[in-house]
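Methods: holo model generation. Sequences were used as deposited, without trimming of termini or removal of tags, and paired with ligand SMILES retrieved from the corresponding compound records. Each pair was processed once, and we did not select among multiple samples. The sequence and flavin-adenine dinucleotide SMILES for this entry were:
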Amino acid sequence: METALWWVRNDARLHDNAALAAAADADRLLPVYVVDPRGYGEQPYDGRNSFDFEKTGAFRTRFLQETVDDLRGSLDDAGSALLVREGRPDDVLPEVADAVDADAVHFQALPAPEERDAAGAVVSALSDAGVTTRSHWTHTLHHVADLPDRISGIDDTFTPFRQSVERDSRVRDPVPEPDLPETPDLARLDGVDDSGSDLGSFPTLNELGLPEPAHDDRGVLAFEGGEAAGLDRLDHYLWEGDHLREYKQTRNGMLGPDYSSKLSPWLNAGCLSPRRVAAEVEEYEAERVSNDSTYWLLFELRWRDFMAFQTAKHGGQFFSLGGIRERDDIDWQRPDHDPAAREQFERWARGETGIPFVDATMRELNATGYMSNRGRQNAASFLANSLRVDWRRGAAYFETRLIDYAPGSNYGNWAYIAGVGNDSRNSYFDVVGQAKKYDSDGEYVTHWLPELEPLPAAQVHEPWELNRATQAEYGVVLGEDYPEPMVDLDATYEKFH
Ligand SMILES: Cc1cc2nc3c(=O)[nH]c(=O)nc-3n(C[C@H](O)[C@H](O)[C@H](O)COP(=O)(O)OP(=O)(O)OC[C@H]3O[C@@H](n4cnc5c(N)ncnc54)[C@H](O)[C@@H]3O)c2cc1C
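and the model returned the structure below.
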C-alpha cells in the first residue's frame, strides 16, 4: 500500500496538474496546503541593502483563502480531502508524512529563489525522514524540459527567447484530471478529531494582522479565488463574451472587465493552467477565428514564461538593485536611508504625486489590488525613472498589493522599466504623452480621481497648465483640491536625452 502527499503550492487545481496526477497514482492520497508564516507580515526584502515590507496584503490573501476553500470543495467532491496547516513546509510536511506513513511527497517546482529555497528545505527534511520527493514543472506554458536551451543558456532578451520556443518547443497537452484514491487514516495527526472532520483552515485576515479589504465597485472585476472562478473567467472571456477576437486591439485599455483577459490572478495562484488556456485558444481558433489577437494571448503568456525562466537563470541577481546588468551607475534615492526619498515614495504609493495618470493608477491598485499593464508601466516608470527612487521599493509595494503578484512577472517588469533588467535600452515612459494616448478623454483618470471631473478633458492630464484663476473657475485649485505636481516631468526626462 503506497501513501502519497500532494503539497499544494501555486497549483491549486485539479485540471492539468502533473503533481496531483502523480500523487494520485498511490493507493492513498492526502493533499496538504501549508500557510507559511514567511509569506505574511513584515519580512526582509533580503539580499544586500535589505529593507522590510509587508509580504502579502489583504487582496491577495483573501484571494488565496477563497482559492483554498474552492480546492477543498472540489477535493471533497472527488472523494478526497484537504489538510491545511500553518508553519514552515519543511517542519509541517515531515510531521504529516510521519503521521500518515507517507512514502512519497509530490509538489510543484517553482523557479524563483525563495520558492526554490522552500522546496529545497522540504526535500532535505523529508529525505532525512526517508520519504521520497518528486517535483513537477507545471507553472509555465512551456515545460522546462521542452525548452530549446538549458536554463543557463536562455537569451536575456525576450524576442530571441520567444522565437526559439515558437520554433523549437511545443506546448504539451493538459494532463487529464485523475481519479483520486482514498484518504489515509488521519488518527495520528495532531489536532484532527476522531471523525477526521477538522482538517484545519486558512487563517483569517484578522489573525494575519490584515484589514478586511473593502469592495470598490469602480474596480475592473470582483476577482474571486479558486479553480471554478478561474475557469469561469476563461469561459467568459473566450466563449461567452467572444472578447479574444479583438484582444490585440483592446489590451491597452484601462477601464472595464474585458479589455484584457484578467487571467493573471488565477494563473499565478495556479487555479488556472496556462496550458489549459492555450488548449482553449486552439479550440477557439478552430471554431471561431484565428487572427493576430488569438496569437497575441499566447505571445503574452510567453512573456510570463520568459520572466519565470529568467528568475531561475539569474536567481538573486534578478532582484538586486543593479539587476542582471549589474549596473552601478544609477544614483538611486533610497527611502530606507533618506527621509526625503521616503516622502517621495509615500506620495507615489498613496497616489498623491500631482500627476493625474500616475495617481489614478495607484489609487486603483490601493482600492482593488489590480492595475492594467499600461498603468503598471507608467506608475513604475514614474517612480524609477522620474523620481529615481530605488525601484525595488516600488516592486515590493506591488508585491504587497497586487492580487496577481508573481516574482518573475513583477520584479522582471520593474527591472526592465528601471533599466537594469531584460532590455538594454535606457528608456522611460512619457507619462503625460501616454495618458493622452491611452486615456484621451480623461475617463480613466476621473474614474479614480473624481476631484478632477470638473476639468475639461483636454486639461485633465495637465491641470498645472491652467492658471490659478482658471483653476478656481473650475473648482480644482492645485494645492487645495488636488496636489501640485511633485516634479517637473519634462525635467526628469532630460537625463535620457
Ligand atoms: C511594473 C509591472 C509589474 C507587473 N507585475 C506583474 C505581476 O506581479 N504578476 C503578473 O502576472 N503580471 C505582472 N505584470 C504584467 C502585466 O501587467 C499583467 O500580467 C497583466 O496586466 C495582467 O492582466 P491580464 O491578465 O488581463 O493580462 P492580459 O493582457 O490578458 O495577458 C494575458 C496574460 O499574459 C501574461 N502577461 C501579460 N503581460 C505580461 C508581462 N508584461 N509580463 C509577464 N506576463 C505577462 C499574464 O499572465 C496575463 O494574465 C507587471 C507588469 C509591469 C509593467
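The CA atoms of residues 16 and 175 lie 4 Å apart.
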